[in-house]
Amino acid sequence: MAGSTWKYQVFFLFCLILHSQLPFPSSLSSSFSSMPPCSALLHFSKSFSLVKDASLSRASYPKTASWREDKHCCTWDGVECDQNTSHMVGLDLSSSWLMGHIHSNNALFFLPNLRRLNLADNWFNHSLIPSEIGNFKSLTHLNLSDSGISGQIPFEISQLSSLVSLDLSKNGY
Ligand SMILES: *[C@@H]1O[C@H](CO)[C@@H](O)[C@H](O)[C@H]1NC(C)=O
Ligand SMILES: *[C@@H]1O[C@H](CO)[C@@H](O)[C@H](O)[C@H]1NC(C)=O
Ligand SMILES: *[C@@H]1O[C@H](CO)[C@@H](O)[C@H](O)[C@H]1NC(C)=O
């Protein structure tokens, strides 16, 4: 009957929309672990919109806008690599107009050699700090000040044994 066909079509459309809104299929998130660091970083940057109002500092500018795939990511603005190992050890995207949610399966969490992470003065839309922050075993400096994160601070932060500086100020807890 025409009526039930119509209902099925609406149901299918609904499933399609629901499916397309899931953050990432888990198979994709596990594939990040084998992703080259530059690709993971690019993936991370593309998960945000660049919106000037997301940063309050007068000196803010969108650092990721100048990132080019044909250049090695160690040359990108805000990226610091160890000269000997060429491991990515620092990421400073403070005041970089980043707006959007940080999800727990974000490619960022597959950059395990990070020692310094600064995402201060952006707007992460009341995201929770994912417990995957515990993946950064070498993290010494973490700055998420004034970045629109909220909710409980994950227990895993207490297990970052190399941490010497933690700034979670100016967020809505
Ligand atoms: C790189 O290696 C040289 C020689 O072993 C060492 O003196 C230097 O401190 C190292 N640099 C870094 C950033 O680890
Ligand atoms: C964290 O970043 C903010 C904004 O850039 C800066 O004012 C603050 O001094 C930083 N915190 C630490 C501990 O360096
Ligand atoms: C994030 O927050 C801003 C400001 O409240 C809002 O305009 C934007 O739509 C939000 N983005 C998402 C992905 O929820």
From TrEMBL:
Record membrane topology: Single-pass type I membrane protein
Primary location recorded for the protein, binned into one broad class: membrane
Keyword Signal applies: yes
InterPro entries with a match to the protein in the record: Leu-rich_rpt, LRR_dom_sf, LRR_N_plant-typ, RLP23-like
GO CC annotation: membrane
Gene3D superfamilies: Ribonuclease Inhibitor
Subcellular location: Membrane
Keywords: Glycoprotein, Leucine-rich repeat, Membrane, Receptor, Repeat, Signal, Transmembrane, Transmembrane helix
Keyword Glycoprotein: yes
Range of residues in the leader sequence: 1-27
Name listed for the protein in its UniProt record: Leucine-rich repeat-containing N-terminal plant-type domain-containing protein
Organism listed in the record: Castanea mollissima
